[in-house]
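Late entry, calcium ion complex.
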Amino acid sequence: MRSVIFDTDPSPDDAVAFLAALASPGELEVLAITTVAGNVPVGLTSKNALKALELAGRSDLPVYQGASAPLVRPLVTAEHVHGRTGFDGYDLPEPVTPLANGFAPDAIVDLVMSRPEGTVTLCCLAPLTNIALAFAREPRLATHLAGIVLMGGAMSEGGNITPSAEFNFYVDPEAASRVFESGTSITMIPLDCTHQALITDERLEPLRAAGTPIGTAFHHLLEFNKRFDRAKYGWPGGPLHDATVTAYLLAPELFTGRNVRVDIECSSPLTLGMSVVDWWGVSGRPPNALVLRTIDADGYFRLIFERLLRL
Ligand SMILES: [Ca+2]
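Prediction complete; structure with ligand written out below:
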């Protein structure tokens, strides 16, 4: 049994990630959700997290709100992809559950440090602001964690917010850089991997066919999501990015990757937030992350939607 905390800026793919984990109590114990500004401002990402949990009947799980802006830069959001609310495409009721008391980075430190060393994994689906703040508050956190599994960055795929940067790293490059320099065990799932996992009509069909509140809601939410990607990339569907993190925890055999050196660009205006991946080891510097590069996309969708529909 692995204990996890999801740090997230919920658009629908984030929600699929943490709900699929909640549907897997035999393998994953979800301790909390922590929210951060990213796809939309933090007030909305918190609201979306609560909406998703209430839909799943899991409003007992604490949601801690975190940083409202990156460490040193103004916030950049992605309403052009996910709509004004971050959850456009299906009207879920306004949540009635209150947020948990406390600031997300403090909650992360307290939850992890109160448990035995090497037992809690952080699942990071958003800009890494909260995680960098938690490391700053508690230097022992990096070695106390089991590790971090994150969706972010790109190797040879190019960027999705600028030509060179993936959105999560671009929004808070300084935070991403601090996390990669923290010394904790990191598994990075970049766009190179998630762009192989497209939400086609065929893969989405089980959600529609289920006819359950969860199936219907996520069928519509993911349908909205994929419109943007279809138009932008000309693909049959958009990538289901963030749920790859949960899939990796449940079934790492769906992925292949390599231990390599990753550094984050924090100063160049042209390549800000770029993840520089030393795939061939040319720098001679020690690896600091397992970078995943391939995914069994059919196996991924089967696994994640089967778990989601358990709720
Ligand atoms: Ca996200």
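The pocket of calcium ion is lined by residues 8-9, 11, 14, 38-39, 125-126, 242 (CB under 6 Å). Will revisit in the morning.
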